[in-house]
Amino acid sequence: MKTPIEDPMAILQKGYSVTIVLVVLTFGASTRWLLYTEQAPSAWLNFALCGLVGIITAYAFVWITKYYTDYKHEPLRSLALASSTGHGTNNIAGVSLGLESTALPVLVISVSIVSAYWLGQTSGLVDESGIPTGGLFGMAVATMGMLSTTAYVLTMDMFGPIADNAGGIVEMSQQPESVREITDVLDAVGNTTKATTKGFAIGSAAIASFLSVSACMDEVATFAQEPFKQVDIAIPEVFVGGLLGSMLIFLFSAWACAAVGKTSQEVVNEVRRQFIERPGIMEYKEKPDYGRCVAIVGL
Question: Signal sequence: where (predicted)?
Answer without folding.
Answer: none
